[in-house]
Amino acid sequence: LSLGQDLPRLLCAVPGPRSVALVDRLSHCESPAITPHRPRPGLAGAALEDPPAWSQASGCNVVDVDGNVFVDLSAGFGVASVGHAHPAVVEAGQRQLARQPHAMGDVFFEPQRVELLEKLCALSGLDRVILGSSGADAVEAALKTARVATGRDPVLAFHGSYHGLSYGALAVTGFRRDFFMGRFAGQSGSHVRFAPFGGPVPDLEGFGAVLVEPIQGRGGVRVPPEGWLLELQQRAHDAGALLILDEIFTGCGRVGSWFAFQAEGLEPDLVCAGKGMSGGFPISAAIGRAHAMDAWGPSSGEAPHTQTFLGNPVGCAMALATLGILESEKLPERAAVEGAWWARELARLPGVAEVRGRGLMLGLDLGRPMAGARASAALLERGWIVLPCGEQSEALSLVPPLNISRELLGAAVQVLQEVLA
Ligand SMILES: Cc1ncc(COP(=O)(O)O)c(C=O)c1O
């Protein structure tokens, strides 16, 4: 791979024989709940095709085990904000891995953690951080902080929201709720109430937290009406509830500012970050104001919130390198400019009901249930990785690395034209 800005190059039909052979093995040893695949003798499967197995990646390109080169317009779920395997991120991770791969959660720490926490506070303008290992961790740390700070159980979340699938995060996830939550409803979630995203705000008396994505990601790149988030914040604060913004998708430059809240003049109490923060290491952060975070009180030696891998040094080093690249290469600003250009081009495509989003977080609404899923499959056959989104897979999620070239963005418009015609 050269610069990671190559067009697709397919050596065989996708999935190739090596991928299929790996799925044969995977289908026997992984829970059927995880990777979708075709049926196999003695094993159920529900997908029309097997997925290609990834082998290596660079920048915007992913190569599968059959040698096919793809362009990844999903940035690996939004993680590869500076591109896959950015040399500076790889080097930072390798250096830290050789020196010290682990630092024992809440008991000991090392310098990279201090630098990362300082950096996150400086970028967000907030005061204190709890690190985690997944987006769901960050959401749960923020929810726990709000419970500690307010002493109140009820939480308001929104239809179509996605906050992760561990129990606490699942309880506040509205996206495909019957599918994700149905079987677990008896085990969690009685403290959560849901309201329409962008709709009338219910009475928040007695609520401890309002949790919202500034732009719903998996829910279909849905942008609320102008001023709605500010009103929500006002209503939350009037009622003594904390505003938690889940910026796991929108944060770290994706929507054209470091965080979406900064562009909208919001003053959240807690902000969650993850995905694009580290370039691939599982690390996330709940960042909060002192008045909320300090309500925890000091750890007595038995930390009331921690994890074995909290503040993992390799993750901290990779996150610092990633945030450094985002900053030095002005990638949030670039996302704003390139995203505005791309949105205009995409709006001219046939079969597009709406282009939504901001910066390089765009959603192409195709106006019909499953149209996004069908387009996604047709794009993969042509070497383009694009995930569907929306409650009914009616849209495509366009969230490439923030340093993707204008040429690749243009080529994506051309292939979409072909697929959507
Ligand atoms: C807005 C948002 N919050 C939380 C999560 C959950 O993150 P994770 O899958 O790392 O737990 C996601 C993942 O897609 C997300 O988009």
Q: How would you describe the shape? A: globular
Question: What Rg is obtained from the alpha carbons, in whole angstroms?
Answer: 21 Å
| CA(first)-CA(last) distance | 31 Å
| Largest sheet descriptor | 7 strands, mixed
Instruction: Give the SSE string.
Output: HEEEHHHEHEHHEEHEHEEHHHEEHEEEH
Instruction: Work out the helix count.
Output: 14
Indicate the percent of residues in helices: 25-40%
Structural class: alpha/beta
Instruction: List the uncertain runs.
Output: none
Describe the strand arrangement of the main beta sheet, using strand numbers. Answer: 4-10-9-8-7-5-6
Give your account of this protein's structure.
This protein is of the alpha/beta class. It has 14 helices and 15 strands. The radius of gyration is 21 Å and the shape is globular. The model has no long low-confidence stretch (mean pLDDT 97). Pyridoxal-5'-phosphate is lined by residues 77, 134-136, 139, 162-164, 213, 217-218, 246, 248-249, 274.
Features:
421 residues, alpha/beta, 7-stranded mixed beta sheet, 4-stranded mixed beta sheet, 14 helices, globular, binds pyridoxal-5'-phosphate
What would a concise description of this structure say?
The chain has 421 residues and is of the alpha/beta class. It has helices at residues 17-29, 75-78, 87-99, 111-124, 135-150, 167-171, 177-181, 228-238, 260-263, 290-293, 313-328, 331-347, 371-381, 406-420, and strands spanning 54-58, 61-64, 69-72, 128-132, 155-158, 192-195, 209-212, 242-246, 270-273, 284-288, 354-358, 361-365, 384-385, 387-389, 395-398.
